[in-house]
Specification:
The chain is 81% helix and 0% strand. The chain is an all-alpha fold.
């Protein structure tokens, strides 16, 4: 009898831990969507005061230094030691930091590209990640109904941000292509990191990737003729780069790398679908922008897309709740 009770307690403990992990991941996912969703406004605001690539480089100078200090504080040895660990850092620096942000910031600098059009292009990241994973990570493939969920989520993003068709179709095509290339670089880098058979503490990976990416972007900035004399320091400029550095970058990527290890590249990049929702809420709270019917409909479509993608997880959660309820009723 004692062994039975012990086993039952072990099952309850494992179930409780599993539930805790699921809710922890959900909370972190929503926080990531919040800080990344609100970053489009900060990027657009700061581009009035900084050259685009230099703006991105300074952002990651600050974020990288902050995260390196944090890594030294929480880790016994924050320096990558093996070839595989440095390859992880290199992939993060080149694709997730330098390529993605250089292309995104240059694209958004174009006046014809609105925050809405940039958001809708970046939201293609989960679809692009799925395409890369189908080639590079067979275990990460989605079934047809899951792919339908991705497409449905993208439709919801389109309804939510309501991009001006004239901006997408007749504005500077190069700027939109640059933002698309940014999303592709991020998706490719995410899958490539997952494929690499190496591990590194999140804090160390984030810090060194940011500093390496910042160094690369400073080189790009010089190569394209940007100059520090193009920076105009104002309260708004400092607030924009401070928010992007500390919240969208340091905190955001710390959460991102944590969830990447827990969820895989396809699920974590679904944050691109949720981020525009938080952008709409932030606009309502801080910019007095109304939440329209289109916003509500777009959100519901996104929820439907998530339901298709996560249908098995939802089914397991519902069954678990039913089992718990029945057990409590029997008691």
């Amino acid at each position: 009898m004692a062994n039975v009770v012990r086993r039952e307690r072990n099952v309850e403990t494992r179930s409780s831990r599993s539930c805790g992990v699921r809710y922890r991941n959900l909370i972190l996912f929503l926080v990531l969507a919040l800080v990344w969703g609100s970053s489009f406004m900060a990027i657009k605001a700061g581009l009035e005061y900084f050259p685009p690539v230099l703006y991105a480089a300074v952002r990651y100078d600050i974020a990288g230094i902050v995260m390196l200090g944090y890594a030294w504080y929480v880790l016994d040895d924050p320096i990558p030691r093996t070839r595989g660990e440095w390859l992880l850092v290199l992939i993060g620096a080149v694709f997730l930091i330098a390529a993605y942000h250089s292309l995104l910031f240059i694209g958004e600098k174009n006046e014809a590209v609105t925050s809405a059009s940039a958001a809708i292009i970046v939201s293609l990241s989960p679809v692009l990640t799925t395409a890369c994973a189908r080639v590079m990570l067979p275990s990460e493939r989605l079934e047809p109904i899951g792919l339908a969920g991705l497409v449905l989520g993208l439709v919801g993003v389109g309804v939510l941000v309501r991009p001006d068709p004239s901006n997408l179709l007749s504005a500077d095509v190069l700027a939109n292509l640059l933002i698309f290339a940014a999303a592709l670089a991020f998706a490719f880098g995410t899958v490539l990191m997952r494929r690499l058979d190496a591990t590194l503490h999140i804090e160390s990976l984030e810090a060194w990737s940011m500093l390496g990416g910042a160094l690369l972007m400073h080189g790009i900035s010089l190569a394209i003729g940007e100059s520090p004399t193009g920076i105009t320091l104002t309260i708004e400029a400092i607030a924009a780069i401070g928010y992007l550095s500390l919240f969208s970058s340091a905190l955001g990527f710390l959460i991102y790398f944590d969830l990447l290890a827990q969820l895989g590249p396809i699920e974590i990049n679904l944050v691109s679908y949720v981020a525009p929702l938080f952008a709409a809420i932030a606009g309502f709270l801080f910019l007095d922008e109304g939440i329209t019917t289109a916003t509500t409909v777009g959100f519901l479509i996104i929820v439907a897309g998530f339901a298709l993608i996560k249908r098995e997880t939802i089914r397991r959660e519902v069954n678990s709740l039913r089992a718990t309820s029945m057990a409590q009723s029997d008691d």
